[in-house]
Amino acid sequence: MRYEVRVADRAYRVDLDASGRFLVDGAAVAAVASEVVPRREWQISLEGVSHDVVVLTREPLRLLVDGVEATASAIDERALAASPNARQQVSGRHELRAPMPGLLRAVHVREGDIVERDAPVITLEAMKMENEIRAPARARVTKLAAAVGAKIEAGAVIVVLSEVE
Amino acid sequence: MGRRVRAPAEVGSERLRTFNKVLVANRGEIAVRVIRACRDLGISAVAVYSEVDRDALHVRLADEAYPIGPASPRESYLAIEKLVAVARRSGCEAVHPGYGFLSESADFAQAVADAGLVFVGPPADVQRLLGDKTRARRLAADAGVPVAEGTMESLRDLDAARETARRIGFPLMLKAAGGGGGKGMRIVRSSEELAPAWRVASGEASGAFGTAALFVERLIEHARHVEMQIVADEQGNVVWLGERDCSIQRRHQKLIEESPGPSVDDALRARLGDAAVRVARAASYRNAGTVEFLVDEEGRFHFLEVNTRLQVEHPVTESVTGIDLVALQFHISAGGALPLAQGEIGSRGAAIELRVTAEDARAGFVPAGGVIDLVRLPSGPGVRVDHALFEGARVPTEYDPLVAKIVVWGRDRAEALARARRAVRETVIAGVPTSLPFHAHALADPEFVAGRYDTGYVAARWDGSDPPELAASASLAAALVAVLARRRPPSAHADGVATAWQRSAREDALR
Questions:
Q1: B13-121 adopts what CATH topology?
Q2: Which CATH architecture has domain B224-461?
Q3: Are A68 and A40 found together in one domain?
Q4: How far does CA A32 lie from the centroid of its chain?
Q5: Do B164 and B176 touch, CB atoms closer than 8 A?
Q6: Could you give the 3-state DSSP secondary structure of residue B335?
Q7: Do both A74 and A31 map to the same domain?
Q8: Nearest CB to B477: which of A19, A44, A101?
Q9: Does pTM top 0.90 for this prediction?
Q10: Which of the listed residues A35, A55, A90 is the one where a domain comes to its end?
C-alpha cells in the first residue's frame, strides 16, 4: 500500500509492503516500531535514534513528536483513486468544520471569493462565545455548506477552501 | 514584599479556623482544588454534579456527592435553590462557590446567608456593589485611584455611545456593566464599527449577565493587564499579596499568568498594593479578591474592576507567597482574623501558570469537546498541576474549556521558564485539541522570554503554524506513525510477537 504523507511542511511518499517493510520516497528505511499504547502512541527507532510519537487527534491529524506538536495527513492510494478531492487534500484543500455544536452567526465570504490567510471566514457561536474561524491559507471558497442562523452539528463541514498561489 | 530574599511567614493549618462540612458548588479543576483544601483542613467535602459530570474527578474525590440536574448550567450549577437545598440536606455549614458560575452572584451569597449558612466569599452587598462595573469605577475614583478614561454610568443607548466616542475618541472598548470575564466586551476602532459592536456586545452581555447594559472605556493600546491579590477579614484588616501579570490573553480571557510581573518594580508594586487596599476598604471588602489594573507603556496604572472571588490563577500567588488562599478563605469565613500583617507577607522566586484549555490553539482557539483518551501530566521540582483529567474523562461543551493549569515555580524567572518548558514537553493530552502548542511557542519566543509582551501578544506573535524545530529524523518517524495510525484496531487474533509493521501490512492485505 502506498501513502502520500505530510508532516508539518514536509511531504513523503510511503510504501508499506506485505512483509512489513517501509520504503520512503523509494528508499528502504530501517525502522523498528513498538506500539506503546494501542492506536495512540508509538516508539519509532530510526538508525538507533528513538522517537516518541503520540496521536493527539485524528480529525484533523495532530501528532506529538518528541513532545512537539505537528499537523500531519496520510492518504492511501485507494482513497486517492476513489476520490478526486482526496489528492487535493494533500495539495491544499481545506474543510472548515465545526469543532463543536453551535450556531452559525455570520458568513464573511461568498462562493468563488479569494480569502487571504487568517481572514475571517465564518463566525460560530459556541460556549456562549462568538468564535471567528479564519482561513488557514490564501484560498478560494469552493463551497458554502450552511447559511447564517443554521444550527451546526459537531464535525460538520461548513466551508470548503482550496489553496491558491 | 518585593524580591528581597525572605522566607514567607508560616501559616500552619493548625492556626486556621475551619468548618466541619462544606458544599463545593462548582465542577472541574476548581472543585478538585477546593476539595483538596477541605482535606488538608479536616473538612468533610460535599460535591454536586450535573448529568454529564457523574464520573467527574471532583465527584470521586468528595466525601459525598449529589446530582443537581441536566447539563445546562441554568438547570444545575447555576440553580441557586437546588444548591442551597443540597447544602442544608447534607448538613453543610458553609458553601464555597469556586470561580465562574455563582461565585460573583449577590443573589447566591444572599440565599446562602438566608439559609443560615456561610458563603465563602464577599457578602451579597459587596458582590452587588462591585458587580456593577460602573459603580466600581466611581468607587475607585472616589478613593483616589486612577481609573481608565470613559463613562462612569451605563450608556442609555447607541446614541449615547456615539456621543461618548466623539468626546474620548477611538479606539475604545465597549464593556458589559453587569460583569467581566471577557464576555460582552468589544474593541471599537472607528465609528462604522460602533453599531455592530454594540449589537454583539449587548447580546453577549444580556446572555451572560442578564443585563444588556454597556459602558465605554478608552482603549489603552500596548497595555499590560496587572492584577493585585487582596485578602480582607471580618475585623477590617486588609492585606495585598502581590501582583500577577495576566497580559497573555485570547478573546480577553487569560492564557498565561505570572508573578512577579516582568514590568513591575518594587515602587510600582507598592503603589498597586496601596491602590488595591484603598479600593477594598472603600467597598468594605471581605475575603479573597482581585483588583485588576491596566499598566500603560509609560508605567501609569488604571483601575479596571474587582473580581469578587477566588481567581483561576490564584496558584501563582500561592507559589510565590507560600500561602494557601483557599484555606485562608475558609479561616476568614469562619470568623478568623488575618494571621499575617502586611510586613510579614513575603514573596520568593517566580511563578508562571499555563492554562491548558480544550481549544484548538491552531484554529483561533475554537473550543472543542471530546473524550480524553491518553493523559500524562508533568511533575518534578517546581511543578504543580491543578486539573480534573483522567483517561476516559469527557470534556463537556456546556462549560468552560479549562481542563488543567500547569503552575511552575523557580528561584528566578529564568528557572521558572526552564521548568515550564520541561513541563509542557512532558505533558500528553490526547483526544481533544488543546492550548499546549501555544504555550510551547510562547515559552520559546524571545519576546516572551524577555518579558516584553502586552495584551496584544497572541494576535501579534502567534499564527498557529507548525513549530520550526522538528528535526528530519523526528519528522520521518511522525510520517510512519501517520500511516500506522490509519490502521484499524488490531484484530483479536493478532500474533503477539508480530511487530507493528507486520500487523499493519497484514491488515493492508486484508482490506
A1: Rossmann fold (3.40.50)
A2: 2-Layer Sandwich (3.30)
A3: yes
A4: 26
A5: no
A6: coil
A7: yes
A8: A44
A9: no
A10: A90
CA count, 13 A, side-chain hemisphere, B383: 21
User: B199 at the A interface (CB within 8 A)?
Assistant: no
- What is the reported pLDDT for A96? 83
Count of beta carbons in the 10 Å neighbourhood of residue B300: 13
A80 lies in the same domain as A113: no
Residue B488 clears pLDDT 70, i.e. is over it: no
List active site positions of B: 309
Which grid coordinates are listed for B218?
478608552
- A:B CB pairs within 8 Å: 206
Q: What is the ipTM of this complex?
A: 0.85
What the block records as the C-alpha cell of B436 is 499546549
Residue from the list A31, A32, A40 with its beta carbon closest to the beta carbon of B430:
A40
pLDDT tens digit sequence for B408-460? 999 999 999 999 999 999 999 999 999 999 999 999 999 999 999 999 999 99
- Per CB-CB distance under 8 Å, the chain A contacts of B469 are 68
How many independent structural domains does chain A possess?
Answer: 2
pLDDT over threshold 60, residue B191:
yes
Q: Does one domain contain both A57 and A29?
A: yes
CATH code of the domain in which A119 resides: 2.40.50.100
Domain boundary among A71, A90, A109: A90
The better pLDDT of the pair B506, A68 is held by A68
| pLDDT at site B469 | 73
DSSP state of B147: B
Cis peptide before B171 (omega within 30 of 0): yes
Phi, psi (5° rounding) for residue B89?
A: -60, -35
State pLDDT tens for residues A43-68: 999 988 999 999 999 988 999 999 99
Same domain, A11 and A33: yes
Q: Which fold has domain B149-218?
A: Dna Ligase; domain 1 (3.30.1490)
Domain ranges, residue A19? 2-90
Nearest alpha carbon to residue B95 among B57, B128, B71, B68: B68
Q: Return the domain boundaries, chain B.
A: 13-121, 149-218, 224-461, 472-510
Rounded to the nearest integer, the mean pLDDT of chain B is 92
DSSP state of B496: T
Residues of chain A below pLDDT 70: 80, 82-91, 99-100, 127-129
Closest approach of A119 to chain B, Cα-based (Å) = 11
pLDDT band at B510 (very low <50, low <70, confident <90, very high): low
DSSP B417-444: HHHHHHHHHH-EEESS--SHHHHHHHHH
State whether A72 and A97 are in the same domain: no
Class of residue A56 by CB neighbours under 10 A (exposed 0-12, middle 13-18, buried 19+): buried
Give start and end residues of each alpha helix (H) in B223-288.
266-282
Rg (CA), chain B: 24
- Spatial distance between the Cα atoms of B303 and B276, rounded to a whole number of angstroms: 9
* Domain B13-121 shares a fold with domain B224-461: no
Higher model confidence: residue B489 or residue B405? B405
Q: Do A17 and A35 sit in the same domain of this protein?
A: yes
Q: Of A2, A14, A16, A25, which to mutate for an interface test with B (greatest number of B Cβ within 10 Å)?
A: A16
d(CA B180, CA B311): 12
CA atoms within 13 A on the CB side of B491: 11
A137: DSSP letter:
S
Q: Are residues A13 and A52 in the same domain?
A: yes
CA gap B368, B464 in Å, rounded: 16
Helix (H) or strand (E) holding B346: none
Q: For chain B, positions 435-454, list CB contacts with chain A under 8 A.
A: 436-437, 440
Interface of B with A in 361-380 (CB under 8 A): 362-369, 373-374
